[in-house]
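Annex B. Sample input.
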Amino acid sequence: MRSLLFNLHFIMVLFLFSCTSKTDNSSIAKTITVDKGGNGGFSSVQRAIDSVPSNKKEWTLISVKSGIYNEKVVVPEDKPFIILVGESIKKTLIQWGDHGSSNLSATFTLRADNFVAMNLSFVNTYNLDTPDLDDRNTILWAPAATIYGDKASFYLCGFVGVQDTLTDALGRHFFVSCYIQGTIDFIWGKGQSVYKNCVFNATTGMLGGRAGYITAQGRANSNDPSGFVFLSGFIYSTGPVYLGRAYNQYSRVVFKNTYMSIVVQPKGWSSWGFVGKEADIVYSEVSCLGPGAKMSQRVKWEKKLLTEDLKKLTDLNKFINEDGWIQGQPRLK
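Annex B, continued. Sample output.
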């Protein structure tokens, strides 16, 4: 955990907000406190979630005090309208070390719609402190978080793992000023998501010279609305890394105004198992910065999107927020 805390401290101080976000309590019907020291109603995050009545339509705030909560946490489908708030991204950690399944091994699993999290980190400790993943070690699926619910937003949250760190599986999601760390496919799935002002730390140095991948997006067909859109933000890495590889034939990822360090591979992208079908893949970079953002050696099939198509993807209200669900959630202050 020492390396995690160092990375969080260094990068967050460099880039993210130094203030603690608060919610607009006027729209919250109930507040529950979780405290490992016994000064709250619960000492377990999962027990606090379990206490929320099923299918409520009012927001419940679960305030999680500082500490390392060693547990797997699931928000089931019948527990919508939950706000999970820690004291800070560095001090409130939910962690576990399960591995072997992208669906079952996550430290945190969200199945409910209408969810907000802020000021805490989700960590999968499997292989996290392994300095070198050579042939004697096995890299397995070990998500820090798996997100199935629709209309979920995350503010000042950390997601830390090695492979499949953030399984952005299904639904519309909004990530703001988050820290996401991993090595292989560490943001992957079929989500329809916007990542705004986030920091991406690719710990690919543990691969012994092999390159890792930031994204593996799985859009299924040309009518599938899913895709990952990255607005602003920073990409750092301890070794070579690609921006993404195609998890499906219609994979869609856009980076705009993003700083890319020199370790981003010149080709930028991989079509993976869809060689010869790159015409259907939508990978695009717009106005990105840094030594890793040079376009001269990028794959020839990377797309230069028309202005109208680009706006549909990079305009929050056109891509994920057509019905105004983000404004309908409790506001940050």
